[in-house]
Amino acid sequence: MLPYGRQSISADDISAVVEVLQGDWLTTGPAVDRFEKAVGAIAGGHRAVSATSGTAALHMAYAAAGVGRGDQVITTPMTFVATASTASILGAEIVFADVEEDTALINPAVVDAIATDRTKVIAAVDYAGHPADYDALQRTADRVGALTLDDAAHSIGGTYRGRPVGDLADLTTFSFFPTKNLTTGEGGALVARTPAMAQRAHEFHFIGLVRDPSRFRITDEGPWHQEVHDFGFNYRLTDIASALGLAQLRRLDAFARRRAEITARYDAALAEVEGVRIPVQRADVDPVRHLYPVRILEGRRREVFERMRAGGIGVQVNYMPVYWHPVYQDQGYRRGMCPNAEAFYAEELSLPIFPDLTDHEVDEVVDRLVTALT
């Protein structure tokens, strides 16, 4: 089965991990520090805090933003559930904004219409690697006194109006799951535009530990002392994972180029195929395609999905609208809230895309798709 996504592991990646395994640090050590600095450098020069997963990074972001009971978080339903659930866990009310019909990105006009003084965070998702319209979202956030969050699980390495992903919102989160644009195995990171926000995220992911003597409330202990002011979690990344991440970062440009080549090949081959809509790219972005999401028209998505899988092509569907999950249905959310998102979900099919995918394999995917449609 040809997968829809797969990690690319080189000899250099393996050597980097082996070097850590033969050293003195396995968990939070010097490799973590180097990795965080490297992630921050490509994300606008802001401080990065690594995490055990993209979900953990989202939890850290909402906690750093001070999200709690009584707050509203506006987000898109066209995403993995963690974009919303990590805010729900903190007690927030989730308000889903419908997406643009063509891009499946959160619609800034809808966000602006529903934002209130209870809105704490506006959380966009760079679906499939295409950045959302952050200038418009920031204007709304500034108007109501909210923060912006970029769930950039799909988009590290991309740009929006000449600015790198990581510099587009007040808070940005990354995922380094194996199918993403680079991997640490499991892993993620948060980037914050203000040092204070980054420090809050750091302490939250470090079990809440405060190690700055100037902030101690207990002042008569020795140099070993550390204390907890607010509860946190152990979301610390390891040196083992960070070594892999550092090696992967050195290949991020090559990964991006190959994903762009695969995207162009799909675009050219499928542009005139009946029954398919290819993904849209806005002129002001340079995306790094994590997914290649086509739309299968005339109600044939499941039929084509099953035919492709039977033919050895590991297509996927990304994603069911978040509020369709029973955990949100049980809270009173109902189908029909976001018609564009639901229409997109009914047609979406993710074709294989990853750096080691060959041109021959891309052509095979196209041939199988055309056959499945006939």
Could you explain the architecture of this structure?
The chain is α/β, with parallel strands linked by helices. The protein folds into 2 domains: 11-249, Type I PLP-dependent aspartate aminotransferase-like (Major domain) (Aspartate Aminotransferase, domain 2, 3-Layer(aba) Sandwich); 252-373, Aspartate Aminotransferase, domain 1, CATH 3.90.1150. The chain has 13 helices and 15 strands. It has a 7-stranded mixed beta sheet with strand order 1-9-8-5-4-2-3, with helices on both faces. A 3-stranded antiparallel beta sheet has the order 7-6-13, with no helix packed on it. A 3-stranded antiparallel beta sheet has the order 12-14-15.
Task: Summarize the model shown.
This protein has 374 residues and is α/β, with parallel strands linked by helices. It is built from 13 helices and 15 strands.
